[in-house]
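Lecture notes, structural biology module. Today: joint structure prediction for complexes of two components.
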Amino acid sequence: MAEFVPHPELPPPASSVGVVGWLRRNLFSGWLNSLLTVAALYLVVTALPPLLNWAFFSADFVGENRDACDSGGACWVFVNARFSTFMYGFYPAAQAWRVDLIFGTLLLLMSPLFFKGFRYKLQLGGFILFVYPWIAFGLMHGGLLGLPVVETAKWGGLSLTLLLAAVGCIAALPLGVLLALGRRSTNMPVVQTMCVVFIEFWRGVPLITVLFMSSVMLPLFLPEGVSFDKLLRALIGITLFQSAYMAEVVRGGLQAIPKGQYEAADALGLGYWRKMGLIVLPQALKIVIPGIVNTFIALFKDTTLVIIVGLLEILGMVQNALNDPNWLGFSTEGYVFTAFVFWIFCFSMSRYSQWLERKLHTGHKR
Amino acid sequence: MKLKRISLLAVAVAGVVAAGSATAGATFDAVKKKGFVQCGVSTGLPGFSVSDDKGNWKGIDVDACRAVAAALFGDASKVKYTPLNAKERFTALQSGEIDMLPRNTTWTYTRDTSLGLNFAGVNYYDGQGFLISKKLGVKSAKELSGAAICIQAGTTTELNLADYFRANKMEYTAITYDSSDETIKGFEAGRCDVLTSDQSQLYALRIKLQKPDDAVVLPEVISKEPLGPVVRQGDDEWFNLVRWSLFAQINAEELGVTSANVDEKSKSTDPNVQRLLGGEGVKGEFLGVGDKWAYNIIKQVGNYGEMFERNVGQGSPLKIERGLNALWNKGGIQYAPPIR
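The predicted structure, tokenised, for the full assembly:
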């Protein structure tokens, strides 16, 4: 009797493997998806070529003035000619290296933080957060070591945007943590009430109002001749405003930590600050990384509001350039460029936060 | 009624502030002591105050401050600029954050009388005008009955337009936009026949068109917008300096003194020129400055005509006609009292 030889397995139907299979699974898995695919494809085909054509193929890149822009596409000559003002604002060109140095050094200092083997992360982080800002300020403002003074009124462009965002983030996080802890300290009613009032007040007013008040009302209450640096006013406003938001984000994290953790810390005999610093906050902050980064990204974009107090950050400088009689009519290029710059920074922040989350994802894997 | 009380209160607050600054006064001495003029300008307005590719402020308003610096310090570059928003401009001046405010600010009764401020002169006579496509063949605003008009929402231009059309018993359809960029895009797309705004703006908007030559600015001006530098009340010395810095420029144009020929003209025997350039008779000490004050203004900033042409006129992309801003003896209304 012949042994039963099973028929060799049939290859999967041609329609479910390879390119066709992938297409069927991912793009045409039902009538609705097919319809959406076709619609999306139509949009891409109609919108992309003119867009690429405008931005690259028929765009002008080199030249001196608007006469160089005659090929009908985008006029990147405008962005090119104005690039240094977009970056440095009114910072004297001869001193622009100081700004480059500040941000270059910052990048260099931060890079070891990304390596696993680096041992002095805490010290370096502390240096960047608490010491470096003062060095950077000294370098930016000058007046020491024979550097000419560049008053804050001349700061502008992207460097001002980064400065506002960096100070906002660095100052708001510790303040926010303290406020969150204060709001949760039920055994200290005075502190708690103060924190609640602070948070609710600053969350209740729009940032634009805060900036406007600091710029328009505050000077009227100060004695004649006493003028308070405009940039400092904006920085204080932004920091207080952001710390209220940060406090609520951190509070969310604190509430997510199981009660057992607090009790375990108490059982070990840890005091309040050590309990918070060693047990609760490390876990809570890890949970709220997305929220913190969300607030930072929002802050980064909110820095454009300082234009209403006459501080010209990158968007302000672009808008100023759009009013130059020599460059009238290139608003699309200006705004596209600004959007691109903002996208680069916000996207990097979001990628960084994802990386940080993965790296710190040590427990509670679900 | 309540609203009225609130606005009275606001005026009272402004008044108190003004009184505060009046007693402190002596802006002139303070400026002289610190060695530069703190100048409040617009955050960006074509031809009036805008930064160039190198980040230097340029424009007719900027030049007002440079002229004062030239008169006071003999150096037009001794100016620091504070870019200001329309809303914060008066506070900045009242609070002493800036020394003078040439920021395309219209001289009106209310502003002059209730804010504790003084207008030192008019460096540009502006007014609301009409931009119209050439192919419509309209020559005068009187022919605009039934037109669709693009306009920026929430500005006094909207009110002026309504007044003008009602006074002339004409009809129109307003198409409002939020920003001037949108307004000109709407005009270009043919949403309206006419675009209305201040004339100085119309020329700037016209450049943004694909084919600027296809549009013209009609000659009619339907509102009065005299723009000029503003100073705080209470320091007449400073007020005089700002006012006469402008007058010196206008007088110089009338006398044919330019930045190019000022050295040559210093040797002129014309007594008017001599008085202007500090050669004889009138001394700078009346203003508290050196005798060469007007010479320095003209040498470094130029006369009024030069300043106009360079920033907004034929020497700039805006190509605004002199119009009202021509000298009184050339068909305009720019007129300065004599220096004697």
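Point to remember: Chain A touches chain B through 40 residues (CB under 8 Å).
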